[in-house]
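New to this. Look over this protein:
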Amino acid sequence: MYILFNRLIFDTEDLIVAQASECGLHLHFSGDQNPVRIWCGEDEADKMLEELFTILQAQGMAAAPESRPEYDLDDDELEALDAAAEAGYQWIARDKNGKIFCYLHKPKKVGSEWTDGQPGPPPKQMDSGWYSEITFEGGPVSIDFLRLDQ
């Protein structure tokens, strides 16, 4: 779904992190897209971030900032994610049986599994003992988001 925000049009499916800082609002997107920076003061950035979350929540697209899960990855998990990202994988999700896979495209739930239903390389299976914070119920997580969070 596309939205217009502060004279920018972007696909909400691609937005993974929005952060306010002392120098402005920073929007990070999945894939090879460069971050967008809206330069302004910290107070204005905080107001824009609240406005953006209000828009996204109204569309059912975002959790409140305080409910965003934190991911604590070890070096091996992060290295495996970096390799998956370099190979073009953008999403990671855990099936109900506990197996975890990386996907090129955002997967959809089909029964007890996730699938991206797209042509191309198959999903990349990861070590099921890793990424314990990623659950079947929690849905797919952007690999860029996980890497940014470290």
